[in-house]
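Please, structure for the following, as tokens.
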Amino acid sequence: MALLRIDNLEHRAGMTTLFDSASLVLEPGERVALVGRNGAGKSTLLRILSGEVVADGGEFVWARDTTVATMPQEVPQAWQGTVLDILLEGLGSIGEALGQHDRAAARLATDPSDTDALARLEAAQAIVEREGGWERRRRVDEIISLLELDPAARLASLSGGQARRVVLGRALVADPDVLLLDEPTNHLDIPSIEKLETLLLRRRGTLVFISHDRALVDRLATRIVELDRGQLHSNPGSWSAFLARREERLRDEQRHAAAFDRQLAEEEAWIRQGIKARRTRNEGRVRRLQEMRRERARRREKVGTAKIQVQEAERSGRLVLEASALSFRYPGAEHDAVTSFDLTVMRGDRIGFIGPNGCGKTTLLRLLLGELEPSSGSVRHGTRLEVAYFDQLRSQLDPERMAWEVVADGNDHVTVNGGRRHVMGYLKDFLFNGDRARTPVRVLSGGERHRLLLARLFLRPSNLLVLDEPTNDLDLETLELLEEHLAEYGGTVMVVSHDRAFLNQVVTSTVAFEGPARFVEYVGGYDDWIRQRPAPEQDPATPQESGPSRPRSERETRSKVRRLTPPERRELEGLPARIETAEKALSDAQDAWAAPELYEGGDGAAAEALRAREAALQEELSLLYARWEELETIAAGEDGQGPAS
């Protein structure tokens, strides 16, 4: 029996038709990837399915007693409290009982004689045990760990990316029959994406997700549904199979449209023949012509593909840059953000930088570009470098200016490959029509802002492109076009990305984070790095097997783990206190930086110093957490293996 049936769905957003008699059937246990151009209506479809939006027409019917949870793009304004509070609310009455249990337990910890707290604790515990709540709480803790959330942090204090992870966590903890996820991997690093993939593959329920991450789609999806000009097109199988079927569908569509247009032209010629035609006019033929005209008017042409042109400057010298024993530590930090890093970049190299969020990739990039002064070591730049830098934080986009003003700096014309073009024509190449080109940046979608930044970036002649997370929010067709043009680009490319497919397509070598402050270069893209990265270290005291060698199972290989040294064990014991101290210092710095009186005196230097202090503390905290996780992993391996032989 079908889990969901959508029939003749109709919906408009302003003057745009998002769904035009669209239909779809969803079966239990499917994992459906919903893809399509930016603005096609994918998020609106999820909001209709979740009940947040009422469609203009048609119907959709869920099977009886189906439970649905959704991850929206925006954080609901009604959500308040800590991260843990919000996740527990996603469990309904069980979550309420778990929260009451935690609050009562905390009260008793400070006042064991509080009989009211004891009664509330016992009542909550009875509900939790009756409803199987401890297993649900274990799942909440698993999601908190997976998404690297601070359960005690208040939602209002989180960054946009952290808040989106809370929204994702709220949907995951509910464990419903149907999970609706809108761009779940945005703001997740590769390790977190891989953990999320594993978790979703283990689920027995149904999944519908929107994603521009092709590796995620390829691994998760049992079916790919494309939303194209108001229609839903179903494609079972892999991403490559989807691309082949889409091309075939579009060719059939073009052939049908061409045949229809030829017939319409013949009928139009017939109706214009004048007196002779009117004497012999067939009224049925006239009615058919009128219907053909209406059908032609209803046809929605396929949106064009962005036309990306990368302007190249004079060729750089053969050596682009050389880093030698490069190290950097933020002022006030206890540990290096980068240590003893060596890299040689030659003209034409395409280098990818990968690692967890907060590990220092952007810091390393800024060191290599000369934006930060190294604490030790050196960076030598080659000759005739012209750098174009894609800013991860989009700081180059003034939210109050219109799109065309941002691209052309207020001018009517831009220079493209030596020729003069009107800015509106240039923006059409990046899929901005007249109305969107005159729209303030703050109103644009995430994908539109990314295309706008690319349009601005590629106006600058360059021989070194530096791209920090360029693929977020780009639709798949624009992403693939960007890959093609980067492959044809004659200069050098340095790119930070969590998009595994993008890295495989673009880069020739990969700089990977491999522990606190340590980065190592490997030949090839992401998959090449996976094959080359070092295996877990073996305990040197473990004796080697004698006799003929034999293949070892994964379990046997993992049993050969190294043990913590005495200094490492002392370091691990002291890390929680150090992390707590750093978190308190970061909180104090953030409060001081946000205080209004800091700016009333006009002391810009003090504000800048506090901002630098906050950045240094954030970097230090990331390194402390990474070190804690590394040592905890080794310690857990010890506990699981027993004494060394």
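The two ends are 57 Å apart (CA to CA). Residues 361 and 589 are 23 Å apart (CA to CA).
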